[in-house]
Amino acid sequence: MKYAAIIFMGLAMSVVTEFTESAEGPGAEYEIPQAPTHWLATGNKGGGSGPVTQEKLNASHTAKSSWLHYYGDYRGYRHSAIDNITPQTVGNLEFAWGMAAGTQGPFETSPVVYDGIMYVTTSYNRLIAVNPGSGEVIWRYDYQNPEDLRICCGPNNRGVAIGGDLVVMGTLDAKLLAFHRLTGALVWETVITPYQRGFSVTGAPLIANGRVYIGVGGGEYGIRGFFDAYDLATGERLWRHYTIPTDGEPGVETWAGESYRIGGSPTWNTGTYDPETDTIFWATGNPGPDWNGDDREGDNLYSDSLLAVDPETGELKWYFQFTPHDIWDYDGNTQIILLDVEVNGEMVKVVGHADRNGYYYLINRENGSYILAEPYVAEINWATIDETGRPVVRPGAIPTGTHTDRVCPGHAGGMNAAYTGAYNPNTGLYYVNSIESCEIIEKGMAIFIEGSTYLGGSFQSVDAEAGTGYGDLVAIDASSGEVAWRHREANGLLSGVVSTEGGVLFTGTVDGRFLALDAATGEVSWEKRVGSIVRGQPIVYEYEGDSYVAIATGGSNGVEFFTGGFSSMPDNTYLFVFRLGN
Fold this sequence. Notes:
By secondary structure, the chain is mainly beta. The chain folds into two domains: 1-36, no CATH class; 37-44 and 51-580, Methanol Dehydrogenase, Chain A. It is built from one helix and 40 strands. The strands form eleven sheets. Strands 3-9-8-7-6 form a five-stranded antiparallel beta sheet, with no helix packed on it. The chain is globular, with a radius of gyration of 23 Å. The relative contact order is 0.13.
């Protein structure tokens, strides 16, 4: 005999599973089915805006009712066009709705909003489509990950990309999945690479001109890094750009012996697209092993670098390397912002980049030439930067068989690629959360086994200049690199930042507070205690005439970079949404 169990998720969905009664008859044990993995929407959903065209993607920075990119727009600004959230009105924010993620691990997502639907990813690759004004679930998909994942730093998923009628998500076992944005139906599924070799996908994809661009994690597993382009309609791979050269290619001479085969250089954070120069920009991560460079002598191109590639072919246009021969794990994968600034009396198209090594860079985005590097962390002592942009390393900062001197910043940053900054074009300031914690690094043995961690050492967090580790929200003049102001949080900052046209910044703290600050001065204008560590990337959007702010919270791993005050914080994962009242 079979019994049907009907599970309802909201008013619009139902899914039927079955279980079978054992042969022993009623009262005996039952076979327990797996939980349903896919709830599909029934009926018409959305507001009727039609597919997401390239024109909409290009103009996303002007839209109030949508948030179409991981960074809000192709420029990487995370700046909302909504102007009614100001330092004077932000106190009128009130709780609108909330949603439990239902998974453990860091909740670091940046939701996407379009056509009356919000798309939220959680850890372990759950994807939920909800009404952005009420939180009503429209459809949901729970990806079934294998048990032997290769992830160094938590089961994170930072978001989806949207294009046409498809929503695209990467998975922890290195796949790409595309869903119909209205119904949740799975349209295609593509294996990027075998995860067993150490690969994963934790970042949000990027969509431009009918192509999906995605990078991979695995820098701690001795992978050979790359990022790919896929056809949005079919999931077919169009090209692959390796971030480490091989035999006969320019740059392979910067890797001693055959160390390039297992050199790391992952691409786990999201890049961006520049329609003006028709270029994909992607930043790369650390070489491997992380803290022992003995077997990979040389600059180790193209690790810890900014790459500019042709979006149609994947061919390299130019590169700039931030940290040659990285032996501090200064994973250079942080956010890219596209600016026009005045240099020697002329307007120049540039890339702005706050690197984990503690320096803020301006690079000419048309040819890759170096313009400037200025420190933005409160304490930096590992290296100075010469007139060409190359670090001049302090000898005491080099890991030895015992340990280094105290090295600042530690390997987590400065700015960490897991968390976004925001640029406000009205103030000219780039706002980033900086991890202010130094380290002592001990070089260790480096033995490569495929699919296992390949670190070559260990680290110990030590006091930063002001005492124990802390966090700074740093306002950087994006044209000069000068620091305009700092907002300090003693217990740390491990979340993203978003800016509004009305002059407000939103971010969150390790001790569980969601903050609004004046973008001009850094003064706190409003705060709410949300009950757990804030790890997500906040967004701002408009729905049916009201302005909303959303933030993902929960997931405590990663707080080892700070000390004090947070160890007892709950690990609950929730999405909180606030509405601007009158």
